[in-house]
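Researcher: Checking consistency across runs. Here is Nuclear transport factor 2 family protein again:
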Amino acid sequence: MEKRFPVPPFTLATALEKVQLAEDAWNSRDPQRVSLVYTPDTEWRNRDQFINGREEVVAFLTGKWAKELDYKLKKELWSFTENKIAVKFEYEWHDAAGNWFRSYGNELWDFNADGLMQRRFAAINDVPINSRDRKFRDAGDELVLAC
């Protein structure tokens, strides 16, 4: 069986590490890489969609990042128990027309003994923003402010 460290039971340090690893994986925007942190039969609720298994995760994320361009995410640990983690997050992205959004939400994660996520339940809301109001910028992004 594959393992994905850190594994439960979580401590504050390992829960924080698990959240950072998830943030890093999602910011890669690589659906295949992201899918490997989930069990082969993972169950998701993402907004109004129900996703089952790694293949559906890859298909979902491929479509997501084709729509949500220049996606940049920040996750924060909210709470944890032995094998569960709750996070709050926000991310920014723009559509093909150049309209920017900030998406806010919460996720509840359940892990198996090998550290793979069995269940992910996400509630997410999108808010239109002006590009100058972005929080998450890459080093190459230019910010032009009106004087």
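Researcher: Does this match what you'd expect to see?
Model: One thing to look at in this run: The radius of gyration is 16 Å.
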